[in-house]
Design goal:
The chain is α/β, with parallel strands linked by helices and 306 residues long. Among the domains are: 76 residues, Arc Repressor Mutant, subunit A, CATH 1.10.10; 107 residues, Periplasmic binding protein-like II (D-Maltodextrin-Binding Protein, domain 2, 3-Layer(aba) Sandwich), CATH 3.40.190. 42% of the residues lie in helices and 21% in strands. The protein has eleven helices and eleven strands. Strands 3, 4, 5, 6, 9, 10 and 11 form a seven-stranded mixed β-sheet that branches. Helix 5 links the parallel strand 3 and strand 4. Helix 1 packs across helix 2, helix 1 packs across helix 3 and helix 2 crosses helix 3. It starts with a helix and ends with a helix.
Length: 306
């Protein structure tokens, strides 16, 4: 038995594609497929239905998947207990870079409220954070979720969910760009908007596309910069390289306060409300985790609309 097989199996289930899962696991597709086959041989059953795309679990695969999540959780708990900060009862949180840099410190001050509980973070894009959570590598997931286009589906019978805030995803540009450029938002064929675009594989690419496709108007643009990271696009916007759709958290980051929102005269046509949500596995009964989760629940209930 190779413990890597657990994480390979989880990545394949979450992504539904051998190619994407192999890339996420920093492996060639051939080597990744061999490890999945070895896992199936060890289990004594076919776990993956390869005849459909995205791939699906067989009945045996569904049974083993839940146990695999539990097993990786146990392994991570054991490692946490042996870590140098075990006396501080660490709670592991996965979240996006923008939420980590803009909100987490303030949230943690409220949630921990002087308790001797340490916070260990795993920061990445939405897919990476979600994979860390479902694999059992972290206790709590904090992520964005656009109501009309959820980034993932987590079983309500397995995971608890709390809404902890709402942000707006809207187009921003630097005053310098607006002074020096001749385009007017949302652009024309002759003077298109210089667009700072999210990479196609990123969740925010899909959200921005949904917003622009639903606006009732045509966004005339030319791509000048592309990245999956909102912080990178925020930095590019600050340098006057183009227009970026950014969340409130991204605009709160250092240096981004001077960016101007471009859609105010159009109402909500070019922007969208996006939820900030937290998840916890129902069977995670670690006492420090439950204390933090109860504090998150109190804050969620006290928030407007909670």
């Amino acid at each position: 038995m190779d413990t890597r097989w657990f994480y390979d199996f989880i990545a394949l289930v979450e992504m539904g594609s051998f190619t994407q899962a192999a890339e996420y696991r920093n492996s060639s597709q051939a080597a990744f497929s061999r490890r999945i086959q070895s896992f199936e041989q060890w289990a004594g059953a076919k776990l993956i239905d390869r005849s459909v795309y995205p791939v699906e679990l067989t009945l045996e695969g569904k049974k083993l998947y839940r146990n695999t999540l539990d097993m990786t959780g146990y392994l991570e708990d054991m490692r946490a207990e042996l870590s140098p900060i075990r006396a501080h009862q660490p709670v592991r949180i996965a979240l996006t870079y923008a939420l980590a840099t803009s909100h987490l410190a303030g949230w943690w001050r409220q949630w921990s409220d002087g308790q001797d509980i340490a916070c260990i973070t795993t920061v990445g894009n939405i897919l990476e954070a979600t994979s860390a959570f479902t694999s059992g590598s972290v206790d709590i997931l904090i992520s964005y979720s656009y109501p009309l286009l959820p980034p993932f589906k987590l079983d309500d019978g397995i995971y608890e969910r709390l809404a902890i805030g709402t942000e707006t995803l809207a187009p921003y540009a630097s005053p310098k760009l607006l002074r020096q450029s001749r385009f007017s938002f949302p652009g024309t064929a002759e003077q298109p908007v210089p667009l700072l675009l999210y990479s196609r594989q990123s969740y925010f690419y899909k959200v921005v596309k949904h917003i622009t496709d639903s606006s009732g108007k045509v966004l005339q643009y030319k791509t000048t910069f592309e990245s999956e990271m909102s912080s990178t696009l925020s930095g590019a916007a600050q340098q006057g390289l183009g227009v970026a759709w950014l969340t409130d958290a991204s605009v709160m980051q250092e240096g981004a306060h001077d960016l101007e929102r471009l859609d105010t005269q159009y109402g909500d046509a070019w922007s969208g409300s996006i939820d900030v949500v937290a998840f916890l596995a129902q069977d995670n009964r670690r006492r420090p985790v439950r204390r933090i989760w109860e504090a998150i629940a109190r804050d969620s209930a006290a928030a407007p609309g909670g």
